[in-house]
Design a protein that fits this description.
The longest helix is centred in the C-terminal third of the chain and has 12 residues. It is built from four helices and five strands. It is of the alpha+beta class and 86 residues long. It starts with a strand and ends with a helix. The N terminus is likely disordered. The strands form two sheets. The chain has a three-stranded antiparallel sheet with strand order 3-5-4. Strands 1-2 form a two-stranded antiparallel sheet. The protein has one domain.
């Protein structure tokens, strides 16, 4: 569940991402649904944004039907939205 931390930035609770870790780097991953929730969007709005926004973070494929996003990329993207970058 996303929440605002002390500096007003969106943050994901670590329990949400614990099972999504890149084995080679140890980097946390989030699902498209978690990313959409952090953006405050429906899944259809999320996928539309992903298609039309060239600054949207690239997905990480975890198998044939499992797409994830790097948590660090998602946070950077959300912070950029607050600064009018996207």
């Amino acid at each position: 569940m996303p929440h605002r931390n002390n500096d007003g930035c969106m943050a994901m609770a670590t329990a949400d991402v614990r099972s999504f870790i890149l084995p080679e780097s140890g980097e946390a991953l989030i699902s498209p649904a978690q990313f959409a929730e952090a953006l405050g969007e429906s899944s259809s709005s999320f996928y539309n944004r992903a298609k039309r926004d060239p600054s949207f973070p690239p997905p990480v494929q975890k198998g044939v039907r499992r797409t994830r996003y790097r948590l660090s990329d998602a946070r950077r993207y959300i912070l950029g939205l607050g600064q009018g970058a996207a």
